[in-house]
Amino acid sequence: MVESRILLIESNYELRAFIKMQLELEYELIQACSGAGGVDAATKEIPDLIIADVDLPSENGLNICRRLKNDSRTKHIPIIVISGQSTLTQQLMGLNSGADLYLTKPCNIRILRSYIHNLLQMKHTWSEHFKHKKHMNVPEGMICKEQGAFLGQLKEIVEANIGNSAFTTQKLAREIGISRSVLYKRLKETSSSSPAELIKLLRLQKAAIMLLCQDKKVVEVAWEVGFNEWKYFSKEFKKHFGQSPVKFTAELRASIQATNHGLNAVNAMSIS
């Protein structure tokens, strides 16, 4: 199995060394000690996930996050931002910058490891959906750059409207600048999914991340990802993930805890 590659952007040598020590047995680590170096590494290496400190020399970590999320080469990469600033306003600024998660210091290394696991699993599920979709006409690994960019653009638009239950395929077509029939045809050629299926898939993917990483009830998550009826949400979630939202979350969290069980005392140290 190929190791997932994580880019760590951290200017503090001791903290960078500590995180590296904790993660290097599970992941391939790429390191950068500045914002500029981090952007350069991200665009050249295209890692599976990025961890960035907000307090970086020359450029704020949130600006780095915005740059990477606005770059077609890196916009798909999950980003975890770590900051010493914990007010609600600052956390919202972090999430609005495009970060998938905003963690405040001190951050327990086991919590960080769990979040990494969750985000990578969601990313893998998304990739596999299109790679192994039934009746897919494009051979594995042969999706061209243009098709990949098209899917990435669609994903970005849907995610920007994820909480809007009134966001339809017609609005998606309008946002991307093509007719609904052309959107349907292009998406079918690329993935064999319809636009409606894509929107629903991305809502469910976002919901899974929220359930795993945030302490929220199923009904709250359903509403926040654009489902008006939580029972319908639960039905579609089970259809996609094979389990109800509650069971899915409980079993994955239990799996993570089992994986972490027995770690030595150093693994309980906090990132501060």
UniProtKB/TrEMBL annotation:
Keyword Phosphoprotein among UniProt keywords: yes
4-aspartylphosphate, modified sites: D53
Domain of life: Bacteria
Domain HTH araC/xylS-type: 152-251
Keyword Plastid assigned: no
GO MF annotation: an example: phosphorelay sensor kinase activity
Leader peptide range in chain numbering: none
Domain Response regulatory: 5-120
Gene3D superfamilies xref list: 3.40.50.2300, Homeodomain-like
Pfam families, alphabetized: HTH_18 (PF12833), Response_reg (PF00072)
Keywords on record: DNA-binding, Phosphoprotein, Transcription, Transcription regulation
CDD domains named among the record's database cross-references: REC_OmpR (cd17574)
Alphabetical list of PANTHER family matching this protein: HYBRID SIGNAL TRANSDUCTION HISTIDINE KINASE C (PTHR43547:SF2), TWO-COMPONENT HISTIDINE KINASE (PTHR43547)
Protein name: Helix-turn-helix domain-containing protein
Species this protein is from: Chitinophaga eiseniae
